């Protein structure tokens, strides 16, 4: 049954991604509400698959790198869908849907395991939950940074490309970007504090690289917010620091586990 849910989620995500992309090039393309409805079904199928993939392990919870990545993708997709009627994110949806389809595919066909017993450690549940929400908010901010970069490029070159009519106002995208970074940074600070409270040794052998990289990422985002507030940073500085911060956090969360679970 889990395989069926995974395949249905992948098919629905890909259909939605292609359908939304079609509207960028043809105003009379596939119906937007139909595309988002199919994407919502994909999220439901995805959640059923994740429940089985993570919770079905007899010895605990299978928090493998592919399952965690798929969980992050599910969280981001759900957030983007819920906010799609309020925020200008249509141009980002095909990327998000495609990435979610990829993570489900990876989780299904890359059989790795990392068994944990988070049900017996409520403090660890709090730390992981805060970390996932922080990372999700900052990754969405990263997507908005890419969108802002594209809009800036179009404005500078006065482009009238195929996607130009679908682009939202630059100031609106920038405002959303800073709000997402602020939210993600606050959650990341709380996640770090919870880690020092609930985990035995954040600078121990199994955690030191994650701790150092995540603190480095946090510093990058704090500097970004301070620069925007004190010196009015915009444009390239904001986009570059957002990308650097997300890369550091990605290495902290997934770097060593990719090596140990996938390559070795």
UniProtKB/TrEMBL annotation:
<feature type="transmembrane region" description="Helical">
    <location>
        <begin position="237"/>
        <end position="255"/>
    </location>
</feature>
<keyword id="KW-0472">Membrane</keyword>
<feature type="transmembrane region" description="Helical">
    <location>
        <begin position="92"/>
        <end position="112"/>
    </location>
</feature>
<dbReference type="GO" id="GO:0005886">
    <property type="term" value="C:plasma membrane"/>
</dbReference>
<feature type="transmembrane region" description="Helical">
    <location>
        <begin position="33"/>
        <end position="56"/>
    </location>
</feature>
<dbReference type="InterPro" id="IPR052372">
    <property type="entry name" value="YpjD/HemX"/>
</dbReference>
<feature type="transmembrane region" description="Helical">
    <location>
        <begin position="124"/>
        <end position="146"/>
    </location>
</feature>
<keyword id="KW-1133">Transmembrane helix</keyword>
<feature type="transmembrane region" description="Helical">
    <location>
        <begin position="211"/>
        <end position="231"/>
    </location>
</feature>
<feature type="transmembrane region" description="Helical">
    <location>
        <begin position="68"/>
        <end position="86"/>
    </location>
</feature>
<feature type="transmembrane region" description="Helical">
    <location>
        <begin position="176"/>
        <end position="199"/>
    </location>
</feature>
<dbReference type="Pfam" id="PF01578">
    <property type="entry name" value="Cytochrom_C_asm"/>
</dbReference>
<protein>
    <submittedName>
        <fullName>Chromosome partitioning protein ParB</fullName>
    </submittedName>
</protein>
<keyword id="KW-0812">Transmembrane</keyword>
<dbReference type="GO" id="GO:0017004">
    <property type="term" value="P:cytochrome complex assembly"/>
</dbReference>
<feature type="domain" description="Cytochrome c assembly protein">
    <location>
        <begin position="39"/>
        <end position="263"/>
    </location>
</feature>
<dbReference type="GO" id="GO:0020037">
    <property type="term" value="F:heme binding"/>
</dbReference>
<dbReference type="InterPro" id="IPR002541">
    <property type="entry name" value="Cyt_c_assembly"/>
</dbReference>
